[in-house]
Amino acid sequence: MTLRRSVASLWIATVLYWPMQVIVSRSWTTPYSWRDDVISALGAATCTDYCSPDHVVMNATFVAVGGATAAGAALLVRPSVGIARTGWILVALSGLATCAVGFLPMDVAPVPHTVAAQVHFGLQLAGMLCVAGSVGRVASRFTYACSAIAVVGGIAFLSPGKWGLGSGVTERLALDTLNVWTIGMGMLLLARSWNPGPGIRGL
Known about the structure:
The chain is an all-alpha fold. The chain contains 7 helices and no strands. The protein has helices spanning about 5-10, 15-25, 55-75, 80-105, 110-130, 135-160, 165-190. Helix 2 (about 15-25) runs antiparallel to helix 3, helix 3 (about 55-75) packs antiparallel against helix 4 (about 80-105) and helix 5 runs antiparallel to helix 6 (about 135-160). The longest helix is centred in the last third of the chain and has 24 residues, at about 165-190. The N and C termini lie close together (about 10 Å).
């Protein structure tokens, strides 16, 4: 399998992140609120503030998505140069932070969990901005658009009242947009809209 197809396969596979959320949410005895409940509530391992019977499935999903994101970005480090290489390293590290979110449920290790989520957000956003100038016009515009939505979502999530959107919506605007980006970049990579690195158009 070529580098192009390997990266694309890893990233596009993370689309399963959303169906898994739906599956896990259906196991709740009290309805899960997509508007008001945070994503991590689906991975709550104890029935304290939240009770998520299939938390193991959700936390495994966090680990799998983080691992696929990190692996895909890691494959792009070597063929890249300059600030783009730094960007892919940051994206890879952000994927590892997502894995940590799965290993550290919010109700078991609240502080490390929150730190891991914040590190994931910051590193991937920084990585996206680093690679934006080297991935071609279409992918660059897509990257900037996803970055802007993520920033707006993050500000809304931290704002009093969440702009009336709720914790669930604002957090998904902030964090899920990053996952949308990797999936979109994988699809654009298959479509040959951008190159993994200089001089390797045939890969």
